[in-house]
């Protein structure tokens, strides 16, 4: 049980990076970007392919971010220059990335034949390298993976916080709030939209690269439903912590990802559920996260109203109605 919870927290922290990318598009840019399901795999496939070919896992992870960044630019160009609907732009890029990801993973074999997965069981990853380093120093390795994940998501969170407070970041936020207003200040909203999508998918691909190294494999189907997981993390975090400031929101998104993984891990402990039910559980968690905050808000509103009306006021209103 403790091991399952530790694993859920580790995965939750890594998925928190992906959730931060989803937050940038859905909340900051107000752009429903479905590229995420494809760019997550692009990051995993790129990192795995480079590691198998003998490159450093650190370099492979950085290149994976770049691959996701390019995928985001593609979606942005389809929408801004092609005039395609935001939702359809993401779907088209996601479909295109499926074939691209097969080709990327096929680079590890002769003639670049499409390949659905890459195992990393015998390969060095960021996690295995740090574990080896900790062992050589005599440091206990029980929480090394947790520390790596925590450091990675903290650095990304701080970077996102700082970026959103810069001039470009503020312009990006304004673009999501009101495009017409930001255009009146001679800002190029097309470029800002492309930049936001590129950074978002770069973060998603970065998370995919880490997950591939964490699970010791990359698979073409590992990105299915990733956008729903990201949304679940954002919604859960916002429902618990609120949206008062950028620092608080990004923290809420990361914690939301961890809570989501913990809930999923606990749910899978139930006897009649198995890993095949993960997508169903994800959908149920998202539905509950969307409905419960609204229901609780309505209940608290009705309670506040009843507290404001005193019994004497009620009696006075009743007597007044009788006399009239």
TrEMBL record:
CDD domains documented for this protein: TM_PBP1_branched-chain-AA_like
Regions that span the bilayer: 12-29, 49-75, 87-106, 126-156, 192-214, 220-242, 249-268, 280-297
- Stretches for region Disordered: 303-324
Q: Which InterPro entries match?
A: ABC_transp_permease
Which Pfam families does UniProt cross-reference here?
A: BPD_transp_2 (PF02653)
What is the protein's species of origin? Chryseomicrobium palamuruense
Q: Which PANTHER family match?
A: ABC TRANSPORTER PERMEASE PROTEIN YPHD-RELATED-RELATED, BRANCHED-CHAIN AMINO ACID TRANSPORT SYSTEM, PERMEASE PROTEIN
What is the official name of this protein in its record?
ABC transporter permease
Q: Which UniProt keywords apply?
A: Cell membrane, Membrane, Transmembrane, Transmembrane helix
Q: Name its cellular compartments.
A: Cell membrane
Q: What is the lineage of its organism?
A: Bacteria, Bacillati, Bacillota, Bacilli, Bacillales
Membrane topology type = Multi-pass membrane protein
């Amino acid at each position: 049980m403790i091991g399952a919870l530790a694993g859920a927290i580790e995965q939750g922290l890594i998925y928190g990076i992906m959730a931060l990318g989803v937050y940038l598009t859905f909340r900051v840019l107000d752009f429903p970007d479905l590229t995420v399901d494809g760019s997550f795999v692009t990051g995993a496939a790129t990192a795995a392919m480079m590691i198998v070919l003998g490159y450093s896992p650190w370099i492979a992870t950085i290149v994976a971010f770049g691959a996701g960044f390019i995928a985001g630019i593609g979606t942005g160009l389809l929408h801004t220059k092609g005039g395609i609907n935001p939702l359809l732009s993401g779907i088209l890029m996601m479909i295109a990335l499926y074939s691209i990801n097969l080709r990327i993973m096929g680079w590890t074999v002769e003639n670049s034949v499409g390949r659905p997965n890459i195992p990393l069981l015998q390969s060095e990853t960021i996690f295995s390298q740090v574990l080896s380093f900790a062992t050589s120093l005599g440091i206990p390795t029980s929480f090394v993976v947790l520390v790596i994940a925590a450091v990675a998501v903290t650095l990304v969170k701080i970077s996102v916080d700082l970026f959103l407070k810069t001039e470009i970041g503020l312009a990006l936020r304004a673009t999501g709030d009101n495009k017409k207003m930001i255009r009146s200040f001679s800002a190029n909203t097309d470029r800002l939209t492309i930049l936001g999508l590129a950074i978002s998918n770069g973060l998603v691909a970065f998370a995919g690269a880490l997950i591939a190294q964490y699970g010791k494999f990359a698979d073409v189907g590992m990105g299915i439903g990733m956008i729903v997981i990201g949304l679940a993390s954002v919604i859960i975090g916002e429902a618990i912590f609120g949206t008062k400031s950028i620092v608080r929101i990004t923290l809420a998104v990361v914690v939301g990802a961890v809570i989501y993984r913990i809930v999923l891990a606990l749910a899978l402990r139930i006897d009649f559920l198995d890993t095949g039910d993960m997508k169903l559980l994800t959908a149920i968690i998202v539905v509950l996260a969307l409905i419960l905050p609204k229901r609780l808000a309505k209940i608290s509103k009705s309670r506040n109203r009843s507290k404001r009306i005193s019994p004497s006021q009620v009696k006075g209103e009743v007597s007044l109605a009788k006399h009239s």
